[in-house]
Amino acid sequence: MDKKKRKEILDKLYKEKLIEFRQSLPFDENIFPKLFDYLDNELIIYGCNHTSLITETFLQKNGILNVIEVIEWLAKNGGYCDCEILANVEDLFDYLNPPKINTTPKKEVSKQKINSLETDFGFCIERVPSPWNLIETTATNSKEYFFQFGKNNNCTVNLHTHFSLFENDNDEHWINLWIDETNLNYNLENLTVERLKLGDYTVFIAKTKDWTPVKVWCANKKNSSWLLKMNTELSRHKGDIKELEKLLSSIL
Ligand SMILES: [Zn+2]
């Protein structure tokens, strides 16, 4: 039997089993994810006492009257008590994925490499210099852009349009941003801010001697509606800043 044929048969069997399963359900399939959420929360607080008491409470609260039938059905499917119902029965509803209830629609995000960019907020690059790549990510209502090079994402440069007003002269501002973004809050004695002038840009570099993350902000003196932020690492940041300089000089 060839692979394709075998797959067709397996698909058909799966579909038949699924129809049978759905027909066997003791109440609306869309209520099951709610039950599992409820169990998830209650079991954390009360634990399982080897009965299906929490499940029964849920049924009562949701006006489900065929309790005996439900409990029998759950047991038949591997759920003899509340913790087993969550552990063994929830997976049987994977076919509902994404669950039809209680979910906000998932954001569809797509990524693509682009070669040039001109935005309505005045960011323009016609040619992305090697070794950088420019990536456009598209979500439901928004597009975002970042530059990167190399295989790992250890160095990225993000284009930002929403940021708080600069307090360029205030080191503390950049230090606090570094702390906010890294969530690191100790061994900060050596946290320093350096400033560089690169063409039309003022570049702020926040780093420590103890931690890997290095944050670099590039503010364009002529256009304050966007800025570039580089995330890099202590061991490589000097080389990365050289590449950054190339990138900045390619922006029109
Ligand atoms: Zn249990």
UniProtKB/TrEMBL annotation:
This is DUF2695 domain-containing protein. It holds the Pfam family DUF2695.
